[in-house]
Amino acid sequence: MDIREYLKSGSRLIFDGAMATYYNSIPGREQVRSDTANVAHPEEILGIHRGYLEAGAQALKTNTYGASEDFASGRMEDGEAYLRAGCRLALEAAAPFDAWVFGDLGPAPQGGFLTPAASYCHAIDIMLEEGVRHFLLETLGSDDGIPEAARHLKEKCPEAFLITSFTVGYDGVSRDGILGKELYQRGCAVEEIDVVGFNCGSGPHHLLEFLRTLDLDGSRPMSVMPNAGNPTIIGHQAVYHGTPEYFAGKMQQIAALPGVQIVGGCCGTTPEHIREMIAELKRNPPVSVRVTPRSETETQRKAEPNPFWEKLERGERVVAVELDPPVDDEVGFFLDGVRTLKNAGADIVTIADCPIGRPRADSSILAAKVRRELDIEPLPHMTCRDRNLNATKALLLGLTIEGVHNVLLVTGDPIPSENRDEVKSVFNFNSRKLARFVTGLNETTFRTPFRVFAALNVNARNFDIQLRMAQEKEEAGVSGFLTQPVLSPEGLENLRRARETLSGKLLGGIFPVVSHRNALFLNNEIAGMRVSQQIIDRYAGKDRDEAEALAVEISAAIAEQIRPYTDGLYLMTPFKRVSLIEKIMKAI
Known about the structure:
Layout lengths: L2 H6 L4 E2 L4 H6 L12 H4 L1 H14 L3 E3 L5 H6 L3 H19 L5 E6 L10 H14 L4 E7 L5 H11 L4 E6 L13 H9 L6 E5 L4 H8 L10 E4 L5 E4 L2 E4 L3 H12 L4 E4 L7 H13 L12 H4 L7 H7 L4 E5 L9 H13 L3 E4 L11 H12 L2 E7 L5 H13 L4 E5 L20 H14 L6 E6 L6 H13 L4 E6 L3 H13 L3 E6 L5 H10 L7 H6 L5 H19 L5 E5 L5 H10 L1
Parallel strand pairs: 1-10, 2-3, 3-4, 4-5, 5-6, 6-7, 7-10, 11-12, 11-18, 12-13, 13-14, 14-15, 15-16, 16-17, 17-18
Antiparallel strand pairs: 8-9
Helix pairs in contact: 4-6, 4-12, 7-8, 10-11, 11-12, 15-24, 18-19, 23-24
């Protein structure tokens, strides 16, 4: 029977469970990537497929989850071999049971040998050659490349059937920082996608709770395939303890949600889980019940004020000053500096997050201390280098509890090469993805939304790339940019272009050069800095006092030059010289 007609009849489609975790539970196969067994141990894969079919599954996923990543990473030959073998094994296993076979593809990473779209399309072409006509793109944290892949599939094979399945955590946000609700809506808007659903990320309870927040009306079928439960890590392996009975009971509740016609399992689910789920659905046939999401008035809580952002919104110019955190536990100088800057008229103090990858006092903890003890708005920098999304969310929760509601998100400098054997960078995401993550949490978690700022390098050799990335950051929720120092005609011109192109607030960067040697160092050693030869020459032969006076003069002149293109200033304190910044603030 045609799968579309089957679903239109109101019948429920039962998928299998997880191949990889089940395969890794076999003694001796704990650390083996399951799709390599398509070639190395095909009889084992056939046995697992048959186990799910004998349990009652009507649809099989090919054991090819890693193919799109293989192709994105340039492992073309191996990826194609595993993919073709996986398709043939699933088709062979399904034939005696008259079951549907779905070509299964996991997420394709960005920045690889092939784009996500190209990776999916290449895998789809091979699957079509092998006779597969139904497809499942699953465990997706974003829709990167998905619309293109869907259109490609339907152009090559109009009768093909495509399910796109996203994954979200307990908070309803994907690992790419996108709200699950937004991903669902975006997937449903793609005409070539037949079914949109969710899998993985959490056990059936939390996925059920998330699905209840969606305004499902049953107008289109939905697929839901959760994990067996939460895993325990034993010997570097995730072990799932969720019982078939518990899984089945929760799946009965999930199947009662409007439109949920396609059900199955993800990580940790075995043929027993599928068998018990089928039995439970027969014992207690789900009765579809519309769940109405809680209204905003029920969930809305009063937000705290954000004086810095409110001043920007009123069109008033602001001054942000950066002060490096201490390298030890002596914080007196730092706090005295903040106090001086506040008295000089600074609206906000920005605190770097371990600049150039070397450890300093934590920017977020310092920000909370500054906010509490000195009553001035802090802007902690937050990098993607030292923490994953869980740790980032925990830190943001702590900041908002302390009344800190502005953050500057940057990718972060890498760990210095001499320390890399002992200290590892995280870099699970970039600043754009992090901004999207924070924006999602603003909608689901925080009473007072964070205002997200980002960096803009006006000294970049190819500023077109910087502008394009900045536009992507704005799309991800960035409200404003702090620029690198403007110390050259090129930097000023790029700032002008940024004002014409971007919609967010712009704080123009000012760095007071303190000596001729300092100017040469900045120009030659520091990424993102460009000092004009004219400025360098003006420092030649100057002593410290003369150089400081010149720094005040040049900084005040630059502040006036960039005024038409900015909403305020971003002053960077060199070598702890707070008194110099104080003089500049008086001059401007």
